[in-house]
Amino acid sequence: MNSPENRKQPVSGRAVDDPSYYRSEPVSFVRRGSRLQGRRLAAWEKYAGQYLYEVPRDIADTSVSRQAGFDQEAVFGRTAPLTVEIGSGLGEAIVTAAAAHPERDYLAVEVYAPGLAQLMLRAGKQGLTNVRVIQANAPEVLEHLLAPGSVDELWVFFPDPWHKSRHHKRRLVKESFADRAHRALRPGGLWRLATDWEEYAHQMRDVLEADTRFENLHDGEAGGWAPRFEGRVQTSFETKALAAGRSIFDLAYRRR
Ligand SMILES: C[S@@+](CC[C@H](N)C(=O)[O-])C[C@H]1O[C@@H](n2cnc3c(N)ncnc32)[C@H](O)[C@@H]1O
């Protein structure tokens, strides 16, 4: 019933304001305060022309057409290794990395417009030329937009944990997402993850340990957890998690 062929049909049982309404799988986000105002609206107007990559859509407004493509060399005007951050939030991590590594290209994938506006404002103030942003559902970006094997590093930091078991199906990191990550990453490319939700950390590790297409960079060390990735700055989200007394779990895998 929910096969890709009939995904333009609304999925029965989903509310019309559920972003999964037209999709074959539930999405990992909800619609929330996406209206741009004030400083962020001004930032969007000033910087979208420079940083926003407009994606051809399928039926939903955060979807990605199957005919879409992303020509990295044409977009950035050069050849460079590409880091993709999924769910970049306010852009703290990716903009810091882009400023520190002008020799690399960075692509932020986020559905939340105010976060993207904030990211573009940070990048614009620093005059960065090696960052672009995409407002779309990440699994579709990995599956339809990015060329197979085109990503050097994939980052998924603090994906929404969807605590309740009846919502676990909405979690981003699961087998189907690993397929999409595998497709997008180059052989030898790295997938870095972090979460403050212990049970989700175990789910991530279980998914990746069971997937022989990925190799744990810290296999056999302290439960297979990675040390904190030095390129991952402490975001406001992480600050809140630490203040609430939660531990942070990092993982790092190489695509074979
Ligand atoms: C908990 S926040 C973490 C943000 C950031 N990584 C940080 O560490 O501060 C998760 C972010 O992922 C975004 N997100 C969730 N599902 C997404 C999806 N399917 N595609 C793109 N972005 C998504 C949300 O909008 C939210 O901004």
TrEMBL record:
InterPro entries to which the protein is assigned, alphabetical: SAM-dependent_MTases_sf (IPR029063), tRNA_(Gua-N-7)_MeTrfase_Trmb (IPR003358), tRNA_methyltr_TrmB_bact (IPR055361)
UniProt keyword annotation of Ligase present: no
Keyword S-adenosyl-L-methionine: yes
SUPFAM superfamilies: S-adenosyl-L-methionine-dependent methyltransferases (SSF53335)
Binding-site list for substrate: K164, D196, T235, S236, F237, E238
Documented EC number(s): 2.1.1.33
Pathway the protein takes part in: tRNA modification; N(7)-methylguanine-tRNA biosynthesis
Superkingdom to which the source organism belongs: Bacteria
Keywords recorded for this protein, A-Z: Methyltransferase, S-adenosyl-L-methionine, Transferase, tRNA processing
Catalytically driven reaction(s): guanosine(46) in tRNA + S-adenosyl-L-methionine = N(7)-methylguanosine(46) in tRNA + S-adenosyl-L-homocysteine
One Pfam family per UniProt: Methyltransf_4
Sequence positions that bind S-adenosyl-L-methionine: E85, E110, N137, D160
Entry-linked CDD domains: AdoMet_MTases
Function comment: Catalyzes the formation of N(7)-methylguanine at position 46 (m7G46) in tRNA.
PANTHER family linked: 3-DEOXY-D-MANNO-OCTULOSONIC-ACID TRANSFERASE/TRNA GUANINE-N 7 - -METHYLTRANSFERASE (PTHR23417), PENTACOTRIPEPTIDE-REPEAT REGION OF PRORP DOMAIN-CONTAINING PROTEIN (PTHR23417:SF14)
Family from the record: Belongs to the class I-like SAM-binding methyltransferase superfamily. TrmB family.
Protein name: tRNA (guanine-N(7)-)-methyltransferase
Organism in which the protein naturally occurs: Zhihengliuella alba
Gene: trmB
